[in-house]
Design brief:
- With 200 residues, the protein is of the alpha/beta class.
- The protein has one domain: P-loop containing nucleotide triphosphate hydrolases (Rossmann fold), CATH 3.40.50.300.
- It has eight helices and six strands.
- A six-stranded parallel sheet has the order 2-3-1-4-5-6, sandwiched between helices.
- α8 links the parallel β5 and β6.
- α6 packs across α7.
- It is globular and about 45 Å long.
- The relative contact order is 0.20.
């Protein structure tokens, strides 16, 4: 099938970040369909490599170990450049480690899907693969996570998008429009660069 919106990303991926339930997987699939680029889900890759679910990894080895696995995967992806540029959907806490933030920011075009706690609650209501939301006050945990991680997402992202009221196809379309600007050739010295911080 011919993609609706092919992009020249210069060999770099489009990377989706944000809290659990913000829509990274759904928007990633829509982006993949629109651009024809493959989708890589970091959580799924780690589960396949380790042979265990994320809740089991958290329970047996702890969150810090899981974050180290994320770092190892990002280093591997960086080492494969240039490769067919995928769309990368990440785990919600991948930005906790400073090295991860730096890796993500230089790997490609990082999009932060930033949605409110109410939307996150609705979207995570029936999930069982989220160890930080098990047997707890989900609203309080999500509010605390958003507050604590907000500066990390802001530091990492090139584009911040409020996708609370967007369907996945609309979000994918808007991301493509900004990605075209982001990946344009750099302008001559002295002119404003095309890369920067965007808000939608």
């Amino acid at each position: 099938m011919v993609p609706m919106h092919p992009l020249d990303t210069k060999g770099h991926p489009i990377i989706l970040i944000g809290l659990m339930g913000c829509g990274k997987s759904t928007v990633g699939k829509a982006l993949s369909m629109r651009t024809g680029m493959p989708l890589l889900d970091t959580d799924a890759v780690i589960e396949e490599q380790v042979g265990k679910s994320i809740p089991d990894i958290f329970a047996e080895r702890g969150e810090a170990h899981f974050r180290m696995l994320e770092t190892a995967l990002l280093r591997y992806i960086e080492g494969r450049h240039p490769a067919p540029p995928p769309i990368i959907s990440t785990g919600g806490g991948i930005i906790i480690r400073k090295e991860n933030r730096e890796l993500l920011h230089r790997l490609g075009f990082v999009v932060w899907l930033n949605v409110g706690v109410g939307t996150l609650l609705a979207r995570t209501a029936h999930g069982s693969n989220r160890p930080l939301l098990q047997n707890t006050d989900r609203a309080a945990v999500l509010a605390e996570l958003l507050h604590r991680r907000y500066p990390f997402y802001a530091e990492t992202a090139h584009l911040q998008m409020d996708s609370s009221r967007m369907d996945a196809n609309t979000a994918a379309y808007n991301i493509c429009l900004v990605a075209e600007r982001f990946f344009k050739p750099r302008r001559p010295r002295g002119e404003k660069p095309s890369e920067g911080s965007f808000r939608t």
